[in-house]
Design a protein that fits this description.
Length: 388
């Protein structure tokens, strides 16, 4: 064979191998049916990639997470997937975040240095774009573990120093690795993508990672994690639902209430929840500034606030600055519940990692929440609460 023919053969072989590798990689990454099936009754809001359903349809179906009633079509959609927890940061440079207002339940805790982070649980609503997505922490694993044996958990890496705060090590111990664990390190583009322009200003790279709930649920589908796992077990087989009640009638609601929260001492991360009597919602300020959702441009709000006091300590695992924290998520402690413009003194209890966080009033009865989102604020025992 001539030298020229040899070169041509090598080039052809190389191009063929690249093409095959591309299709294999694409199949592994996106799945053979990579496009999420959009229900015929839903449409996609292209501004932020979220499915929306007919708001005029009769709402008869209760969401098991937040108690809100939605249409039968929306229920048929959510019953095809399982709860999804996404780590969203709250650094000053990450605001305004995308997708928090669409979460059914949110947990907010200090990640390090007094800077809080949220674990946002999605099930009955499609948030569209979510982020900026950040890293895993061990205590967030305890909360997401309440949503079935294999809840979808999206994050960008995580604490991995050997010791009690080793979140990535624990993920593998729980049998989540490469299964319900949706780490950007193992999934990558296009499920996760960097968007340096989304915040409209220049920020550090760690504040630019985004995903979307539809893409993350699609990865779950590829891994045989829909409403059932690969063994055929429903995610909610052992799930404990909260109880919900009707809202207080407007004539009996107080005119105002403000719940001021200080996790640590940095005022940039102080939270104020301002009660709106006419809507019976609590509107969020963060660092004294109105806290909006980047997707909808609407102020972040919730129907229910649960403040849980927990022991906080450093992991002492040798990590730089001893920054890794531990919270006493298991056991019981003091709680304050806010809804209908009123305060309820109570307690919380969680028997183990997979146990449901249960909330009780001062008489030991389970608290019934308003139908709507629930925002859990986890404070150290030294945290400050002022209520006006």
């Amino acid at each position: 064979m001539s030298k020229k023919n040899t070169i041509i053969l090598v080039v052809i072989t190389y191009l063929a191998s690249v093409s095959i590798s591309f299709f294999i990689f694409s199949g592994n990454l996106l799945g053979s049916n990579s496009a999420t099936v959009v229900p015929s009754t839903a449409k996609v809001d292209n501004d932020y990639e979220a499915l929306t359903f007919d708001q005029e349809a009769k709402k008869t179906e209760e969401c098991p997470l937040n108690g809100i009633y939605y249409s039968k079509d929306q229920k048929s959609w959510w019953e095809k997937h399982r709860p999804l927890g996404v780590m969203i940061e709250n650094h000053l440079d990450s605001r305004p975040q995308s997708g928090i207002n669409a979460a059914d339940i949110t947990y907010e805790v200090v990640a390090e240095g007094g800077i809080t982070r949220t674990l946002d649980i999605y099930y009955c609503q499609d948030a569209g774009i979510v982020g900026p997505v950040r890293s895993a922490r061990t205590y967030f694993l305890d909360f997401v573990s309440e949503y079935g044996e294999f809840p979808l958990y999206a994050h960008v890496g995580g604490a991995n120093t050997p010791g009690p705060a080793d979140a990535l090590g624990q993920i593998n111990e729980y049998g989540w690795g490469q299964y319900n664990d949706l780490s950007q390190f193992s999934i990558g583009f296009p499920t996760f993508r960097r968007d340096e322009s989304r915040l409209g200003r220049e920020v550090a790279t760690e504040h630019t990672m985004y995903s979307s709930t539809s893409k993350l649920w699609e990865i779950g589908k590829q891994r045989r994690l829909t409403n059932t796992d690969k063994e055929g077990k429903n995610w909610d087989e052992d799930f404990v639902k909260y109880s919900f009640k009707d809202e207080e009638v407007e004539s009996k609601r107080p005119g105002s209430q403000t719940v001021h929260i200080e996790f640590w001492e940095d005022p940039s991360y102080f939270v104020d929840w301002i009660y709106s009597s006419n809507t019976n919602n609590y509107l969020r300020k963060n660092g004294g500034v109105t806290h909006n959702d980047r997707n909808t441009k609407m102020q972040i709000s919730t129907k229910n606030i649960v403040i849980m006091y927990m022991t906080e300590r450093h992991a002492n695992d040798g990590y730089e600055g001893n920054a890794h924290l531990l919270y006493g998520t298991k056991g019981n402690g003091r709680a304050l519940i806010f809804m209908d413009g009123k305060q309820i003194k109570g307690t919380w209890r969680k028997t183990g990692r997979t146990g449901r966080t249960l909330i009780f009033d001062s008489e030991g009865s389970s608290v019934k929440f308003n139908k709507g989102t629930i925002w859990f604020e986890i404070l150290p025992t030294t945290g400050v609460i002022n209520v006006k």
